[in-house]
Design a protein that fits this description.
The complex is a heterodimer. Chain A is α+β, with helices and mostly antiparallel strands. Chain A is about 30% helix and about 35% strand. Chain A folds into 2 domains: about 230 residues, 3-Layer(aba) Sandwich (Rossmann fold); about 120 residues, RNA polymerase II/Efflux pump adaptor protein, barrel-sandwich hybrid domain (OB fold (Dihydrolipoamide Acetyltransferase, E2P)), CATH 2.40.50.100. In chain A, the strands form 4 sheets. In chain A, strands 7-8-9-3-10-11 form a 6-stranded mixed sheet, sandwiched between helices. In chain A, strands 2-1-4-5-6 form a 5-stranded antiparallel sheet, with helices on one face. A 5-stranded antiparallel sheet of chain A has the order 16-20-17-18-19. Chain B is an all-alpha fold. Chain B has one domain: MetI-like (MetI-like fold). In chain B, helix 2 packs across helix 10. Classes of the chains: A alpha+beta, B mainly alpha.
Amino acid sequence: MTLLVEARHRLGNFSVDAAFTSDGGVTALFGRSGSGKTSLINIIAGLMKPESGRVVLDGDIIADSERRIFTPVHRRRFGYVFQEARLFPHLSVASNLAYGRWFAGKQGKAADTTRIVEMLGISHLLERNPSALSGGERQRVAIGRALLAAPRLLLMDEPLAALDEARKAEILPYLERLRDDAGIPIVYVSHSVSEVARLAQRVVVLEDGRVKASGAAADVLSAPAATVATGLREAGVLLEGVVETHDTTHDLTTVRVGERLIRVPKIDLAPGHALRLHIAARDVMLATARPEGISALNVLEGTIVEMTPGEKGSVDIRVDCGGTTIASRITSFSRDALQLHQGKPIHAIIKSVAIDH
Amino acid sequence: MHERAKHLSCSGAANLAAPENSTGGGKTVDWLELSDAEWTAILLSLRVATVAMICSLPFALGVAMLLARGRFWGKAVLNGLVHMPLILPPVVTGFLLLLLFGRRGPIGAFLAEHFGLVFSFRWTGAALACAVMAFPLMVRSIRLSIEAVDRKLEDAATTLGAGPVSVFFTVTLPLILPGIIAGMVLAFAKAMGEFGATITFVSNIPGETQTLSAAIYTFTQVPGGDAGAMRLTIISVIISMAALMLSELLANAAAKRTIAA
């Protein structure tokens, strides 16, 4: 599966001029609000017609302004999960689910209702009305409805943004299952680093309607370039790791990242399972000597490789810990007090509870 | 008083009814019992109002759709035209109908020639007059409900593979159903009460164009017609109340299903 998107469009004094490709899996369109993510995904869906651009899926030209090709939305067979669930209020959950399936015709029959309903854990909701569902349940039904239309591509526009943390935590595992089991390429719009870190294989960073960076998730999210798009608070690194052991007495999981072991709050994955950890730079402390009597569980030795001045008197320091780069954000005061410089040996200290899975 | 009322009602009915219909004047008719002529007027009114309501529905839906969603030159003109019957004196509307749909009128002549559809001095003409008079009310009610539909739901339906026509029938129409029902009831009530345009266009012929309102009017024009007028007035109140309650019931049922998710 390859998806090619090119779009140029002007909306008042904002303009989108972006292009990216994806070869399956989850591609995240990532950026602050107002960066043009939603415009771009609407252009892919066909809900917005760009002044010029192309959408090509597996060699099939869906839209091409030069050749005057524009497939109407309902013939694209691109599933779309919106920020608000947009369930049809006059239909039951079961009828909502059946809606897309009915229009998909032959392809719709191929979609396995039972499996999708099970996967999303909504089998007990089928008889209900959308108004009787919680936000998280609604969003799961919306995902099921999109999937049952047997889409060639699934577009998701911040599907978790309208939900609180508990609901997000409830849906994320379903999205992971969707990514791993359904085999449908997904374009996922988000401004949340933790969601993108957890779900995306590829990341396209958008800023002011332009592509600022794109590539493998770990590379893009760990690169300092993403700092601007992620905002001051969430900048950090994304580490690829493997579950090593579980400590059941203290509900901790040890994750191997390169040569180092990092302890994090318990994760329900079997040992050997690959996962990603997002470590925000603001959650990493630096110490010139190995600290004694400290509650933080992760103390990683390394050397400073890069120091970049950040906003408001802060400094971003990148530490190489045996092949793994950790970013730390400290004040310029601390930098001077500790006399930090490139190549200096250092200890990076990370609180376990601060780590996002 | 009782005797007199009985007598007077019968004489009123005799005036109203076609000659062959006249009921025996001296028979024992209860004060509240309706004469055949009165029944005729009631049934005719119900028929006229129902036909007016049903026949104008598709047009009202189309015009409401155009006004709510369309962007075209002359929208303000269309809007004005639709609302004309609301502000014009009904007699003027009736006269204009007579000019256009009368036997010699441009539209009336065409319809009579090609479809055998005659309006002048027929109950169909009464239905047309009622439909025209009720049209703005129906359009207004439907238009408001269309404007209230969340278009994002229609977008969602499109991404699920529904074409424009399917979207209309599976999403838009069910969502505006309460508005349509309200519009239909308003139109029905208006049609039941319509008087000026009808009497100008198709006159006041018992059994053909004499609706409830026209019959009441006739009763008030003859000496001692009060009892008949009163009976028909009561009927008129009952029908209007029943229509209103039915619409409330239907709208509630429809709204229950469409509480915004």
